[in-house]
Amino acid sequence: MAKLWRLSAVQLTSGPDPLANLTKVEQLLAQLPQSAQHLVVLPEGVAVFAGPDGLNLQLAESLGAGPLQSAYAALAKKYQLYLLVGTLPTCSSDPTRFAASSLLYNPEGERIADYQKIHLFDALVNDSSKQYLESATTMPGEKLTLVQAQQLKLGMLICYDMRFPGLSQALAARGMNVMAVPSAFTTVTGEAHWHTLLRARAIETQSFVIAPAQVGTHINGRQTYGHSLIIDPWGRILAEADGSSEMVLSVETDLDLCQQLAEKMPVRHHNRFQSEFKHE
Asked: With a threshold of 0.85, does the pTM exceed it?
Protein backbone atom coordinates (compact mmCIF):
# COMPACT_ATOMS: atom_id res chain seq x y z
CA MET A 1 0.00 0.00 0.00
CA ALA A 2 1.39 3.38 -1.01
CA LYS A 3 2.41 5.74 1.77
CA LEU A 4 1.26 8.99 0.19
CA TRP A 5 2.21 12.21 1.95
CA ARG A 6 2.10 15.79 0.79
CA LEU A 7 5.31 17.69 1.55
CA SER A 8 5.25 21.50 1.49
CA ALA A 9 8.02 24.05 2.00
CA VAL A 10 7.35 27.71 2.79
CA GLN A 11 9.87 30.31 1.59
CA LEU A 12 9.80 33.68 3.37
CA THR A 13 11.59 36.96 3.90
CA SER A 14 11.06 37.09 7.65
CA GLY A 15 11.67 40.23 9.65
CA PRO A 16 11.91 41.21 13.32
CA ASP A 17 8.12 41.50 13.88
CA PRO A 18 6.75 38.10 14.98
CA LEU A 19 3.13 39.05 14.24
CA ALA A 20 3.93 40.17 10.70
CA ASN A 21 5.84 36.93 10.09
CA LEU A 22 2.97 34.86 11.47
CA THR A 23 0.47 36.66 9.22
CA LYS A 24 2.55 35.88 6.12
CA VAL A 25 2.80 32.22 7.13
CA GLU A 26 -0.96 31.93 7.47
CA GLN A 27 -1.54 33.59 4.10
CA LEU A 28 0.65 30.96 2.45
CA LEU A 29 -0.85 28.05 4.41
CA ALA A 30 -4.29 29.12 3.20
CA GLN A 31 -3.14 28.55 -0.40
CA LEU A 32 -2.26 24.89 0.15
CA PRO A 33 -4.51 22.03 -0.96
CA GLN A 34 -6.22 19.89 1.64
CA SER A 35 -4.42 16.58 2.19
CA ALA A 36 -5.06 13.75 4.60
CA GLN A 37 -1.36 13.41 5.43
CA HIS A 38 0.46 16.70 5.04
CA LEU A 39 3.77 18.01 6.41
CA VAL A 40 4.51 21.73 6.05
CA VAL A 41 8.00 22.96 6.96
CA LEU A 42 8.74 26.64 7.66
CA PRO A 43 12.23 28.16 7.32
CA GLU A 44 14.83 28.86 9.95
CA GLY A 45 14.11 32.12 11.75
CA VAL A 46 10.48 32.09 10.65
CA ALA A 47 9.21 33.65 13.89
CA VAL A 48 11.81 36.42 14.24
CA PHE A 49 14.74 37.22 11.94
CA ALA A 50 17.12 40.03 11.06
CA GLY A 51 16.27 42.16 14.06
CA PRO A 52 18.51 44.18 16.40
CA ASP A 53 21.02 42.47 18.65
CA GLY A 54 19.32 40.75 21.56
CA LEU A 55 15.82 40.54 20.03
CA ASN A 56 15.75 36.74 19.89
CA LEU A 57 16.86 36.51 23.50
CA GLN A 58 14.23 39.09 24.47
CA LEU A 59 11.47 37.08 22.74
CA ALA A 60 12.68 33.62 23.83
CA GLU A 61 9.96 31.47 25.40
CA SER A 62 10.16 28.52 27.74
CA LEU A 63 9.78 25.35 25.70
CA GLY A 64 6.11 24.42 25.68
CA ALA A 65 4.75 27.80 26.75
CA GLY A 66 4.39 31.24 25.24
CA PRO A 67 2.37 33.21 22.68
CA LEU A 68 4.57 32.39 19.69
CA GLN A 69 4.35 28.65 20.29
CA SER A 70 0.61 28.87 20.94
CA ALA A 71 0.06 30.78 17.70
CA TYR A 72 1.89 28.26 15.52
CA ALA A 73 0.17 25.36 17.29
CA ALA A 74 -3.15 27.00 16.47
CA LEU A 75 -2.21 27.19 12.78
CA ALA A 76 -1.46 23.45 12.69
CA LYS A 77 -4.86 22.74 14.19
CA LYS A 78 -6.73 25.24 12.00
CA TYR A 79 -5.31 23.85 8.76
CA GLN A 80 -5.21 20.22 9.97
CA LEU A 81 -1.62 19.48 9.10
CA TYR A 82 1.75 18.63 10.61
CA LEU A 83 3.54 21.96 10.94
CA LEU A 84 7.27 22.18 11.54
CA VAL A 85 8.21 25.65 12.76
CA GLY A 86 11.70 26.04 11.29
CA THR A 87 13.04 27.87 14.32
CA LEU A 88 11.79 30.14 17.01
CA PRO A 89 13.80 31.29 20.05
CA THR A 90 13.41 29.33 23.27
CA CYS A 91 15.09 29.72 26.64
CA SER A 92 18.31 27.84 27.30
CA SER A 93 20.37 26.99 30.38
CA ASP A 94 22.53 30.04 29.62
CA PRO A 95 20.62 33.26 30.39
CA THR A 96 22.76 35.15 27.85
CA ARG A 97 21.92 32.85 24.91
CA PHE A 98 18.72 31.45 23.39
CA ALA A 99 18.18 28.08 21.74
CA ALA A 100 17.21 27.91 18.06
CA SER A 101 14.36 25.39 18.34
CA SER A 102 12.51 23.54 15.60
CA LEU A 103 9.07 22.49 16.81
CA LEU A 104 6.72 19.97 15.20
CA TYR A 105 2.97 20.24 15.80
CA ASN A 106 0.37 17.65 14.79
CA PRO A 107 -3.08 18.41 13.32
CA GLU A 108 -4.50 18.59 16.84
CA GLY A 109 -2.09 21.44 17.63
CA GLU A 110 0.02 19.32 19.97
CA ARG A 111 3.80 19.63 20.00
CA ILE A 112 5.12 16.15 19.26
CA ALA A 113 8.84 16.88 18.74
CA ASP A 114 11.48 19.53 19.23
CA TYR A 115 15.07 19.93 18.12
CA GLN A 116 17.68 22.53 19.03
CA LYS A 117 20.27 23.46 16.40
CA ILE A 118 23.48 21.57 17.12
CA HIS A 119 25.95 23.15 14.70
CA LEU A 120 26.30 26.93 14.93
CA PHE A 121 27.40 29.07 12.01
CA ASP A 122 30.59 30.91 12.92
CA ALA A 123 32.14 31.96 9.62
CA LEU A 124 33.57 34.75 7.52
CA VAL A 125 31.54 35.24 4.33
CA ASN A 126 32.14 37.69 1.50
CA ASP A 127 28.70 39.30 1.64
CA SER A 128 27.10 42.38 3.21
CA SER A 129 27.21 40.84 6.71
CA LYS A 130 30.89 39.77 6.44
CA GLN A 131 30.94 37.77 9.68
CA TYR A 132 28.50 35.38 11.35
CA LEU A 133 28.96 34.36 14.97
CA GLU A 134 25.93 32.35 16.04
CA SER A 135 27.68 30.87 19.04
CA ALA A 136 27.81 34.31 20.70
CA THR A 137 24.02 34.44 20.99
CA THR A 138 22.82 30.86 20.50
CA MET A 139 23.14 27.86 22.79
CA PRO A 140 23.91 24.67 20.80
CA GLY A 141 21.59 21.68 21.11
CA GLU A 142 22.64 18.33 22.52
CA LYS A 143 20.22 15.77 21.06
CA LEU A 144 19.15 14.09 17.84
CA THR A 145 15.46 14.19 16.98
CA LEU A 146 13.66 11.58 14.91
CA VAL A 147 9.88 11.53 15.27
CA GLN A 148 7.38 9.08 13.80
CA ALA A 149 3.90 10.17 12.74
CA GLN A 150 2.05 7.37 10.99
CA GLN A 151 4.31 6.33 8.09
CA LEU A 152 6.42 9.49 8.33
CA LYS A 153 9.77 9.11 10.09
CA LEU A 154 11.04 12.66 10.25
CA GLY A 155 14.62 13.61 11.00
CA MET A 156 15.11 17.21 12.08
CA LEU A 157 18.13 19.36 11.13
CA ILE A 158 18.63 23.12 10.85
CA CYS A 159 20.62 24.90 8.14
CA TYR A 160 24.36 24.57 8.96
CA ASP A 161 23.68 21.03 10.25
CA MET A 162 23.52 19.89 6.62
CA ARG A 163 27.30 20.25 6.31
CA PHE A 164 27.84 17.45 8.82
CA PRO A 165 26.78 14.15 7.19
CA GLY A 166 27.32 12.19 10.38
CA LEU A 167 24.18 13.78 11.79
CA SER A 168 21.95 12.86 8.87
CA GLN A 169 23.47 9.37 8.68
CA ALA A 170 22.77 8.83 12.38
CA LEU A 171 19.14 9.74 11.76
CA ALA A 172 19.01 7.44 8.73
CA ALA A 173 20.31 4.59 10.87
CA ARG A 174 17.27 5.13 13.09
CA GLY A 175 14.90 4.75 10.15
CA MET A 176 14.45 8.28 8.78
CA ASN A 177 12.53 8.60 5.51
CA VAL A 178 12.07 12.41 5.41
CA MET A 179 14.70 14.95 6.43
CA ALA A 180 13.61 18.51 7.27
CA VAL A 181 16.29 21.18 6.88
CA PRO A 182 14.79 24.64 7.56
CA SER A 183 17.44 27.15 6.55
CA ALA A 184 18.60 30.73 6.10
CA PHE A 185 21.62 30.25 3.82
CA THR A 186 23.63 33.28 2.75
CA THR A 187 23.58 34.12 -0.94
CA VAL A 188 27.33 33.45 -1.24
CA THR A 189 27.32 30.01 0.41
CA GLY A 190 23.99 29.17 -1.19
CA GLU A 191 25.22 29.75 -4.72
CA ALA A 192 28.25 27.57 -4.01
CA HIS A 193 26.90 24.70 -1.92
CA TRP A 194 23.11 24.66 -1.33
CA HIS A 195 22.01 22.26 -4.07
CA THR A 196 25.07 20.02 -3.79
CA LEU A 197 24.82 19.52 -0.03
CA LEU A 198 21.10 18.85 0.03
CA ARG A 199 21.12 16.44 -2.90
CA ALA A 200 24.04 14.58 -1.31
CA ARG A 201 22.17 14.25 2.00
CA ALA A 202 19.13 12.86 0.16
CA ILE A 203 21.16 10.35 -1.86
CA GLU A 204 23.33 9.05 0.96
CA THR A 205 20.43 8.65 3.42
CA GLN A 206 17.89 7.50 0.81
CA SER A 207 15.39 9.95 2.27
CA PHE A 208 13.21 12.74 0.99
CA VAL A 209 14.62 16.16 1.85
CA ILE A 210 12.46 19.22 2.42
CA ALA A 211 14.47 22.42 2.80
CA PRO A 212 12.53 25.70 3.09
CA ALA A 213 14.66 28.82 3.12
CA GLN A 214 14.73 32.49 3.90
CA VAL A 215 15.02 34.61 0.75
CA GLY A 216 16.06 38.09 -0.35
CA THR A 217 17.38 41.17 1.42
CA HIS A 218 16.11 41.54 4.97
CA ILE A 219 15.41 44.65 7.01
CA ASN A 220 18.91 44.60 8.55
CA GLY A 221 20.60 44.15 5.18
CA ARG A 222 21.26 40.44 5.55
CA GLN A 223 20.98 38.57 2.23
CA THR A 224 19.58 35.04 2.03
CA TYR A 225 19.65 32.66 -0.90
CA GLY A 226 16.13 31.23 -1.17
CA HIS A 227 15.83 28.36 -3.68
CA SER A 228 13.82 26.22 -1.26
CA LEU A 229 13.92 22.58 -2.34
CA ILE A 230 12.03 19.32 -2.11
CA ILE A 231 14.22 16.38 -3.17
CA ASP A 232 13.47 12.67 -3.51
CA PRO A 233 15.67 9.83 -2.18
CA TRP A 234 17.33 9.40 -5.59
CA GLY A 235 18.52 13.01 -5.44
CA ARG A 236 16.00 14.34 -7.96
CA ILE A 237 14.70 17.86 -7.35
CA LEU A 238 10.91 17.60 -7.22
CA ALA A 239 10.28 21.31 -6.62
CA GLU A 240 12.42 24.44 -6.35
CA ALA A 241 11.57 28.03 -5.45
CA ASP A 242 13.28 31.06 -6.94
CA GLY A 243 15.84 33.30 -5.30
CA SER A 244 13.67 36.37 -4.79
CA SER A 245 10.05 35.59 -3.88
CA GLU A 246 8.00 34.46 -0.91
CA MET A 247 6.14 31.33 -1.97
CA VAL A 248 5.17 27.80 -1.06
CA LEU A 249 6.22 24.54 -2.76
CA SER A 250 4.02 21.46 -2.47
CA VAL A 251 4.33 17.95 -3.88
CA GLU A 252 2.65 14.63 -3.19
CA THR A 253 5.17 11.89 -2.45
CA ASP A 254 5.15 8.15 -1.89
CA LEU A 255 7.28 7.32 1.13
CA ASP A 256 7.51 3.70 -0.05
CA LEU A 257 10.16 4.93 -2.51
CA CYS A 258 12.67 5.10 0.35
CA GLN A 259 12.25 1.41 1.17
CA GLN A 260 12.25 0.41 -2.49
CA LEU A 261 15.59 2.13 -3.05
CA ALA A 262 17.04 0.63 0.12
CA GLU A 263 16.13 -2.85 -1.07
CA LYS A 264 17.78 -2.29 -4.45
CA MET A 265 20.86 -0.55 -3.03
CA PRO A 266 21.17 -1.29 0.71
CA VAL A 267 23.77 1.35 1.51
CA ARG A 268 23.07 1.30 5.24
CA HIS A 269 23.75 -2.44 5.35
CA HIS A 270 26.86 -1.98 3.20
CA ASN A 271 28.30 0.78 5.40
CA ARG A 272 31.39 -0.89 6.90
CA PHE A 273 32.14 2.16 9.01
CA GLN A 274 29.07 1.31 11.09
CA SER A 275 30.34 -2.20 11.77
CA GLU A 276 33.94 -3.18 11.03
CA PHE A 277 35.58 0.23 11.42
CA LYS A 278 33.90 1.64 14.49
CA HIS A 279 35.97 4.16 16.42
CA GLU A 280 37.66 2.66 19.44
From this structure: yes
